[in-house]
Design a protein that fits this description.
- Its main location: membrane.
- The protein is mainly α and 493 residues long.
- It has one domain.
- Helix content is 78%, strand content 1%.
- It contains 18 helices and 2 strands.
């Protein structure tokens, strides 16, 4: 019998071990994308367990447990999609790292939801459907469940595609679709829906116009001045004061409704006082920080870094105070209807429901948020601290103006519209400067189509994807909701 050469056994063993290590490496590589969904699934299960603790004694507790799980799923999707609008500009401008942005956003969103989130939420989503048409408690519960499931699925799909969409519009579409499936088209308040449709145009256009206006002001008063540092010492404290005043009014009006109710005139007075105080404090600080700076645009940009970080944090706080309540509204309605055997147009949100919403947003942000943050911050157009400052300021100003005029607007559409507005303004401004330079030198010539395309500062593919997602959000969520309601009503009962 032939014997193997000495040492060949060890070589064979080394080969086998190498194969095993390669298999382990491949398994780790394949499993890495599943870590995020696995953690999210664990959170959803925990949310269902929390509901079981509170409602395990109820005969229909399985409905609340299922609703809590879907509510947690919805909250995770909000964190993955909606929060990017607040942090994206700051990250794109390199004022914040991705890790820093995620931590600040998670803390501020959770604080906004738990400290200043609404005590009461409209279960019929601002009068979209007539409550009398779904008077049967069972039908009402399935309608709210369908709205919750469909809106969560739609936001999840939009995140996967890379399109920031409005969570509130998704919920509205879900409620409308379930209402139509339950009681027909006559149940929908079409005047309210027409106002929401109008906000698809109003929100981004208003946000883009305000952001472009502030960027034009900064360029004219600071960037194109001979002594940029001296101009910055004059105007940056003014801009910081405006930002502080606007955000104070914004938070007083929209973010502190649980703590105290403030009307528009009082909010504006608060904003004015805070703005003046901030100007007085920031003027000497800006002067001190600008000492020894070179007369360059890069030097001026650093002065906007800290205000931009603070504005992103405040936007996240206000978003947590407002949008989380809208997102968990259907869940709160289901809990109320199950507990009391009926429903009201407005119900209180239990603390444990708000906690699910707050923690779900944090988990979604940590696990899936970077994709949309990069999209908003750097892939639509290039941002620096000044441009990102204009986007953040436009978001707060537009919400205040819209509230004053009684116009329904989406914070998501405003923020992304501000990014588009800054990018399109830069395109227009660059073309204008080139023509002026050409006119002075006598070298005016037609720019080739390829060269014009190369000079575009806003990515048209992202622009079309996002706008298309905005337009179809309500009808897509409504269609999904109608299908889910039909399935629940047909197969569960």
């Amino acid at each position: 019998m032939a014997t193997e050469p000495q040492g060949s056994q060890w070589k064979t063993l080394d080969k086998d071990l190498n194969r095993i290590s390669q298999v382990e490496l491949a398994a780790t590589y394949v499993a890495r994308p599943l870590v995020g969904p696995g953690i999210a699934l664990a959170f959803i299960v925990v949310a269902g367990a929390v509901a079981a603790v509170f409602f395990g004694h109820q005969p229909s507790s399985f409905v609340v447990i299922a609703a809590a799980a879907f509510g947690a799923y919805m909250a995770v999707n909000i964190g993955a999609n909606d929060v990017a609008n607040n942090m994206g500009p700051a990250v794109g401008a390199n004022a914040l790292t991705m890790g820093g942005a995620i931590v600040i956003a998670a803390l501020c969103e959770s604080a906004g939801a738990l400290l200043a989130g609404g005590d009461v939420v409209s279960t019929i989503s601002k009068g979209i459907i007539d409550p009398a048409s779904v008077a049967d408690t069972r039908i009402f519960i399935w309608a709210m469940m369908a709205a919750l499931i469909s809106s969560a699925l739609w936001v999840n799909l939009a995140t996967w595609v890379g399109a920031p969409v409005s969570t509130t519009h998704s919920v509205v579409g879900g409620v409308m679709g379930a209402g139509i499936a339950a009681a027909g088209f006559g149940v929908v308040n079409w005047s309210s829906m027409s106002m929401i449709a109008a906000s698809w145009v109003i929100s981004p256009v208003l946000g883009g116009a305000v952001a472009a206006m502030f960027l034009a002001f900064i360029k004219a008063r600071i960037i194109y001045q001979d002594d940029k540092i001296a101009a910055a010492r004059t105007w940056v404290p003014v801009l910081v004061g405006v930002m502080a005043g606007v955000f104070a009014a914004y938070l007083a009006l929209k973010g502190l409704k649980k703590i105290v109710s403030i009307d528009m005139p009082m909010a504006l007075i608060i904003g004015l006082v805070v703005g003046l105080v901030t100007y007085v404090i920031s003027a000497p600080l800006i002067r001190q920080k600008s000492e020894g700076m070179e007369n360059r645009n890069r030097s001026v940009k650093t002065l906007f870094g800290l205000p931009l970080v603070l504005s992103a944090a405040l936007l996240s706080f206000a978003h947590g105070a407002n949008d989380v309540a809208n997102a968990v509204g259907p869940l709160a309605a289901i809990v109320h209807a199950t507990e009391f055997g009926g429903f009201d147009d407005k119900v209180s949100i239990p603390t444990w429901v708000m906690i699910i919403g707050a923690f779900g947003i944090s988990f979604g942000l940590f696990l899936f948020g970077p994709k949309l943050i990069r999209m908003v911050g750097s892939q639509i157009t290039k941002l620096n601290p000044m441009r990102a400052y204009c986007v953040a300021l436009s978001a707060a100003i537009t919400v205040i103006v819209a509230s004053w005029l009684g116009l329904p607007v989406s914070s998501t559409h405003i923020a992304v519209g501000g990014v588009f507005g800054v990018g399109f303004y830069r395109e227009w401004h660059m073309e204008r400067r080139l023509r002026r330079i050409g006119a002075k030198t006598g070298e005016v010539k037609r720019i080739a189509k390829e060269e014009r395309r190369r000079r575009k500062l806003v990515r048209r593919s992202h622009f079309m994807t996002i706008v298309a997602a905005w337009v179809i959000t309500v009808p897509a969520a409504a269609l999904l909701s109608g299908i889910v309601f039909w399935a629940l009503n047909s197969f569960v009962n």
